[in-house]
Amino acid sequence: MPLTASDVDRFEASRPRLEAIAYRLLGSAEEAEDAVQETFLRWQAADVGRIEVPEAWLTKVLTNLCLNQLTSARARRETYVGQWLPEPLLAGDPMLGPADTAEQRESVSYAVLTLMERLSPNERAVYVLREAFDCPHREIAEILDITEAASQQILHRAKKHLADGRARTEIDGAAARRIVEEFLEAATSGRIEPLVRLLTEDAVSIGDGGGKVPARAKAFEGAVAVAKFLRGLFKPGEAKRALVGGTVEVYAWTANGDPAVVAVVDGRVVGIMCLEVTAGGIAAFRNQINPDKLERATAHWAAAHHGEPLFSAF
Fold it and tell me: CA-CA distance, 308 to 216, in Å (whole number)?
């Protein structure tokens, strides 16, 4: 039977939650949208009148679609050019989903999304559904066709795999801006000493150009090496201006709840640098410069009120 207007409305009411789940599972906004659209097609083909709990049904269909996608994504990422990083989402993007609890904010942080690549598809699903959406283990067990005990064990394993010895520091918007401003002041000083003071001893910097924008295949490791790279990154040069297509406007922002540097050329986001901040200093810079992973950010940026840039680079 064709869907009624009420059936469509029921799906659309669930869409924001479904997109937030899919984004956390896949690390890609585009793939998340595709998974949600495929879920709608399944809803359209189902005997909706016989579905007792639509939200649970939709969550199960979506999760299993994402699990299939994750399996194929692992194979694709083996041939990915350079480092693979998730697609960052700027503050205010509805796909970030709920952020009421520390667990919800943690589950969508850029650092955790990156670390979730360590997890098996089932571990990722259990972690996301439990930590970000507070699904009971009974419901997760039904979604994944496992026992409640197995769901609990998988969650324990997932948390263990995600633990990297660093305690992420919760930061509000004002503090995030101050951190980014302090970092940029040090990065543009022309000296590495101010930068080194801001970093943890084991700081790293990773870039994802996707083979479309030059990015080092191996991460920079250690405070001094990272500081030297960052000093060079913010040093003006005609070659850099030519590479990005103009003068870069630099903004302090947040992405996935973390402090971020947003680089914009003529309204187009050309780079998002996410800072992982710990009690000991800035522990990681994850730099997304693959244009395919910045399209949504560009669209969101165009609709946002972002004020004046901190400065123009290159």
Answer: 30
Task: Report the distance separating Cα 132 and Cα 257, nearest Å.
Answer: 14
Helix (H, G, I), strand (E, B) or coil at 215: coil
CA distance 139 to 148: 8
Which amino acid is present at 21?
I
Q: What does each of the 314 residues of the chain score in pLDDT, given as a tens digit?
A: 678 899 999 999 999 999 999 999 999 999 999 999 999 999 999 999 899 999 999 999 999 999 999 988 776 777 888 899 999 999 999 999 999 998 999 999 999 999 999 899 999 999 999 999 999 999 999 999 999 999 999 999 999 989 865 566 778 888 898 999 999 999 999 999 999 999 999 999 999 999 999 888 899 999 999 999 999 998 877 877 787 888 899 999 999 999 999 999 999 999 999 999 998 999 999 999 999 999 999 999 999 888 899 988 76
Spatial separation of the C-alpha atoms in residues 127 and 59, rounded to whole Å: 14
CB 132 within 8 A of CB 162: no
pTM: 0.93
Note whether 248 and 289 are within 8 A (CB): no
- The sheet carrying 258-265 orders its strands as 220-221, 199-208, 281-288, 268-278, 258-265, 248-255, 311-313
Nearest one of 16, 282, 13, 256 to 272, comparing CA atoms: 256
Residue 260 to residue 90: CA distance in whole angstroms: 9
Count other C-beta atoms under 10 Å from residue 12's C-beta: 10
Q: How many CB atoms lie within 10 A of CB 303?
A: 8
